[in-house]
Structures are given as structure tokens and as C-alpha cells.
UniProtKB/TrEMBL annotation:
Protein's recorded name: OLC1v1009387C2
Domain of life: Eukaryota
Keyword Signal attached: yes
Organism of this sequence: Oldenlandia corymbosa var. corymbosa
Pfam families: BURP
UniProtKB keywords: Signal
InterPro entries in UniProt: BURP, BURP_dom
Length: 276
């Protein structure tokens, strides 16, 4: 990747970091990851933040979907550390007491619980056919992504883009106003921000069949969104308690599961394929 490409990534990542709000990201993490514990209480299906899932058959011109795109508070953006800074701080649940002390966070507080959840999430074993990592700096994000695609690979990054300056999150019906465009990348890496005192991205890639789409949407109130959506065509290895199965009323391996990426998520794919 050349210097101009890296500069573009830094600019995009800076925008994404500004959009991150780590208390809200804690809820998104529960919605997105595939390691749902059966001991957790069942999610409230009326929660608007669960309205990110859809079926592959829904992707057609003129189709209407109820979608919740979260709008983040820019004032609570966590800092993006350099590799040197990030590597100097332990990133392990075994060091949680010292980490809480370091960041002046009270044990048992919501922030402490969010940190513990993030560390545990990053320590989960990957599913069969899945590559995963947690990146704590831009350098580690790029290096780990390159390790998924191959050391000599060139790759691009994209994200969901809000074309209006929206200040509040809103669940509303969106209409697909252009034919969805499939980005025929053989493999992608999706990165989701996790709640932590500094920026942490949980990234994962599955070897199973996935389809990435660019979808142009218009909300009932006129909001325009150029959204990235992914359809996981094989969910047979997913936990049966994954929230997507509850929302879509399906089961592992029965049908594809699709979801939109929030604007603070990053999607990486080989550079020879169409981007946003």
C-alpha cells in the first residue's frame, strides 16, 4: 500500500474514531459478535439497535427496510494510540485491576464492566474458519489486516456514509433507491469499535461464503445513506443464541443472515474490487 493509500486510510480512520462513542459501542458489540452466552438474558426484540439485520431477498430496488443507524456523540471519542503507546499498555483481562487503576476507572462501574467485556471478547477463540484480531493502533490494524489477505496484497477500506448531517439516531423505514451493487471480493475483513479508554477495533474474517453490497438508501424523513451491507451465506457454525436468529426468526444454517455496518465500522477488501 503506497503513502497516498495510507494517508487516505488515516483520514477515514480519523473520521471513524470521531464517530465512536464507547458506551454505545458496548451495545453494538453484543448485537454483532457471534459468541453470545446462553447465560445472558434474551435481548429485547423491540430494541431499535437490533434493527440492522435483514434477509438477502430484501435487497431489491424499491424495497423498504426498517433500519436503525446509530449517530455517535463526537465529544466522547476515545484517542487513537500509536503502536509504541499501545504496546506499552497490557491488553489482557489478567491485567484488568492494574488497567482500571491506570485509567482511574472504579471497579464495578459501567466503564469497568465494558472494559472487561472488551478484553474477554478479544480473547475468545475464533469460530471454525474465522480469523480474528483486536487492533489497538493504526499500525496493528494495517499489519493484522494484511496478514489476513497476504503479505503482498493490496487492500482498500470503506464504511457506511451518511450524506446528511444528522444529530440524532432514528429508527425509520428506508427505501432502496438504486439497484444494490455487489462488491465481489472473495474475502473481507470487518472491524467494529469496542468500548475502551482508547480506540480498539475487533476485526474478523470468515472463510465461508459472504456477499458484500453497497446499498443506496433514503429514509422516510429524506435522510440519504450509502450503506455497506454483508450477507453471511453460511451460518451453520454460529451460536444458536446469536441475536440475528432471534430478529430474523431463523436458525443456524437455515438461511443467510445479512446486516448493515454502522458508520463507525471499517470494511477491508482486496483493492482490485469496486469500492464506495
Amino acid at each position: 500500500m503506497d503513502s497516498s493509500g495510507i494517508s487516505s486510510i488515516i483520514f477515514l480512520l480519523a473520521i471513524v474514531i470521531l464517530q465512536s462513542f464507547w458506551a454505545a459501542s458496548a451495545r453494538e458489540m453484543k448485537n454483532m459478535h457471534h459468541h453470545h452466552s446462553s447465560s445472558e438474558s434474551k435481548p429485547d426484540l423491540n430494541d431499535p439497535e437490533l434493527q440492522i439485520f435483514f434477509r438477502v431477498d430484501d435487497l431489491k430496488l424499491g424495497g423498504k427496510l426498517p433500519i436503525y443507524f446509530p449517530i455517535k456523540d463526537l465529544s466522547s471519542a476515545p484517542p487513537l494510540l500509536s503502536r509504541e503507546e499501545a504496546d506499552s499498555i497490557p491488553f489482557s483481562s489478567a491485567h484488568l485491576p492494574k488497567l482500571l487503576e491506570r485509567f482511574s476507572i472504579s471497579d464495578g462501574s459501567p466503564q469497568a464492566k465494558a472494559m472487561e467485556t472488551t478484553l474477554n471478547h478479544c480473547e475468545f477463540e475464533p469460530m471454525k474458519g474465522e480469523s480474528k484480531f483486536c487492533a489497538t493502533s493504526l499500525e496493528s490494524l494495517l499489519d493484522s489486516t494484511r496478514s489476513v489477505f497476504g503479505s503482498k496484497s493490496e487492500f482498500k477500506v470503506a464504511t457506511t456514509i451518511h450524506l446528511n448531517k444528522n444529530s440524532t439516531s432514528l429508527l425509520q423505514n428506508y427505501t432502496i433507491v438504486e439497484n444494490p451493487i455487489e462488491i465481489p471480493a472473495p474475502r473481507i475483513v470487518g472491524c467494529h469499535p469496542l468500548p475502551y479508554p482508547y480506540s480498539v477495533f475487533y476485526c474478523h474474517s470468515q472463510e465461508s461464503d459472504n456477499k458484500l453490497f453497497k446499498v443506496s438508501l433514503m429514509g422516510e424523513n429524506g435522510w440519504r445513506v450509502e450503506a455497506l451491507g454483508i450477507c453471511h451465506m453460511d451460518t451453520s457454525q454460529w451460536d444458536s443464541d446469536h441475536v440475528a436468529f432471534l430478529v430474523l426468526n431463523t436458525q443456524p444454517g437455515k438461511s443467510p443472515v445479512c446486516h448493515f455496518f454502522p458508520a463507525d465500522n471499517l470494511v477491508w477488501f482486496p483493492s482490485q474490487y469496486e469500492t464506495m
